[in-house]
Amino acid sequence: MRGYAYLQQGAATGWRADQLKGQDMADITAAAVKDLRERSGAGMMDCKKALTENGGDMEAAVDWLRAKGLATAAKKSGRTAAEGLVGVIVEGKKGAAVEVNSETDFVSKNDQFQDFVRTVTGLALTTGDDIDALKATAYPSGGTVEEKLTANIATIGENQALRRARTVEVTNGAVVAYVHNAATTGLGKIGVLVALEGDADVPKIEALGKQLAMHIAAASPQALTEEGLDAALVERERAIAMEKAAESGKPANIIEKMVEGAVAKFRKENSLLNQLFVMDNKTKIADVVAAAAKEAGGSIALIDYVRFQLGEGIERETSDFAAEVAAASGVGLKA
């Protein structure tokens, strides 16, 4: 199973596993080692070995480290990899979240940039999740959103990008917004929206929504329910669990049980309704919602959520790291 994701790709392109594993350590760049270390939390030499074993493929190296028990990549994969701001807004029964990226954190403190993110977040309430429609929308001061962004790039002097948008809505109940590490009202590094449907008193629903939003910001669920988890993500976890179990030397029937147990654990830990509430670390979120509904004397259902973390999944350009790596490893790396 080693290099599972990369070997799948190799099968389609004609590469052989022995060709990939045999890549010279000197071909692994310092920047790649640094990136993997930041993503995985593993040691520098382990990261270099992981990249060498997997032909320099970053995702395969992450899986390799996890299979060897050298990283907790699932909890680190959402590390901020770009600057800018996430904006959230709620109007009536609808909420919107938007991410706008910049090259440096300095720009996120710029009033012009903040005003743009705030305005675009409000416009997203109408355009919804379609980022192209949002870019084509008329900007209040003239032109389109995309034209305003281009003008900002020219005047601020730094590249910027409108990356994504998402909306949630309820018929009854409330949508609650929360910003972690807020730069100003409604803008920050992590933005969360919680959609709660129900006929309970709105203030009580909003109080629950605030607690759930804080939980989501901290726990980073991958889906609302187990059924909503991305199938490819689950299969990736299965492949990692299989490699770990295979190294135990146990009989095949035991290995199968170990793998299924690991996958079941992953499903529960990454589906919001099954996660343990961060406030007490023992009550499932589904039970927290049910208890709140009972106390409020009405119905409350958690139907959707949004969690945008600034820069997740975007590769940041890294500075020269060769000297540190070479000093520690004694092996030269390409910068």
What does this structure look like?
The structure is a single chain. The chain has 335 residues and is of the alpha+beta class. Among the domains are: 4-78 and 315-329, Helicase, Ruva Protein, domain 3, CATH 1.10.8.10; 83-189, Elongation factor Ts, dimerisation domain (Tetrahydropterin Synthase, Chain A). Helix content is 48%, strand content 18%. The radius of gyration is 23 Å and the shape is flat. The model is unreliable at 1-26, 73-81 and 327-335 (pLDDT under 50).
Which keywords apply here?
disordered C terminus; 6 strands; Helicase, Ruva Protein, domain 3; alpha+beta; single chain; Tetrahydropterin Synthase, Chain A; 48% helix; 335 residues; 6-stranded antiparallel beta sheet; disordered N terminus; 15 helices
